[in-house]
Amino acid sequence: MVAIRRKGHLVHPPVPGKEEPLFKKILIANRGEIALRVILACKELGIQTVAVYSEADRNALHVRFADEEVCIGPAPSAKSYLNIPQVIAAAEVTGAEAIHPGYGFLSENAHFVEVCQACGVNFIGPNAQIIRTMGNKAQAKATMQAAGIPLMPGSDGTVETVEEALETAEKIGYPVIVKASAGGGGRGMRICNNAEELPELYNTARSEARIAFGDDAVYMEKYLLEPRHIEVQIMGDLFGNVVHLGERECSIQRRHQKLIEESPSGALSADLRARICETAVKAAKAVGYYNAGTIEFLLDKRGDFFFMEMNTRVQVEHPVTELVTGIDIVKEQIRIAAGKKLSFTQEQVVQRGHAIECRINAEDPWKFTPSPGRITALNFPGGPGIRVDTAMHQDAVIPPTYDSMIAKLIAYGSDRDEALARMRRALDTLVVEGVKTTGPLHRKIIDHPDFISGGFSTKWMEKFMDELKAEQDAAKG
Predict the structure, then answer these.
(1) What is the percent of the chain where pLDDT is above 70?
(2) Annotated catalytic, 387?
(3) Which residues contact 273 (CB under 8 A, 6 or more apart)?
(4) Most buried among 5, 290, 393, 449, using CB within 10 Å?
(5) Catalytic pick among 132, 313, 359, 387
(6) pTM higher than 0.85, yes or no?
(7) Quick one: CATH architecture of 228-476?
């Protein structure tokens, strides 16, 4: 049974001088910093909010600051944040007209979108068909190929057998990468350097994909040795308007998990930036995209770029784009879902300055192992050019059940040097006690000559971690 608590004193009237919102109440089907981020956007728009939470998040900040709160189950995600009947019941009992899914959890679940539609609840995001098309990697690749978007050489759709995998690899050349068709995040993904190791890696990728996504379909692509990961933020409305908000550099990552993001990318010339952003808009228009989304590319050393995937939701790293463009992406998402046209044109989107984001995770910074527990002391940095997106507070308990990210630390400056200087200052004044965090690792990364010069790729972290290990071994004698 759904239990609901209302906080009448927190209900916000429409902001004077602002248009009457088409949504009076939005339920946020998420937790942590993104749930709080959506709540704060709704407060500015004069929209009431409903927080759903698991028993582990009873004292969380997104619960405290929402106008209403509904417990939807025990700690495990499958029994709470991924429990579609409970989420829908919470929306119905509170009278929420729309649901914002944030990122992760149900944000790219086409079935959930269909359930929302059947129940008369607006989903703040694209429709189920778009999510299904772009969420299936093989189908997304075929769609982009038909639209003339540059693709990495690879298989024509899914690869069904070891024999077919060997033939494909021989055609496109080693190294190759085997990828799960139904998911991402590094799961169901294996890099292969020769024909001898391909059969085992192919079968391992399929097995892992089956366990992670319930679908063992895989496809194959040529593997670039030192690419850059460049993504383009796009926004579209229900009237066919699609614009880009510039690119983000996401090459600092470990095991396909991003650690640092920035905008703009130092790897792009003005001409290359224009071409990659225009290609992203073309890709979005090819599927009739609307709301916030991201087109992700791999960029090689010659300046050639290839479509990798599309994320049909708001990204973790959206704040860097907000800082360099001055556009509130979350508020724009809500306006679009309410049937409004984009509030700006492509000509009005101007990138100014530079922004860098560090994902602060509750992890051992050198081993990348989770570090759940209670925060006993906490100080988040401030001062000019610093933004912190978080739902943490002193005495907050970080459960082992969910993603380990506890904060996003973002620095903005008039140029990259100033942004880096502010990030160093921010990391030096970040205090989190009671759990280990990746803050010290970020401090070392941004001081490295390769990072300062911009000379890095998606493979750079492997070299960097080897350097750290050598330093630690030398210190031990």
Answers:
(1) 95
(2) no
(3) 246, 247, 264, 265
(4) 290
(5) 313
(6) yes
(7) 2-Layer Sandwich (3.30)
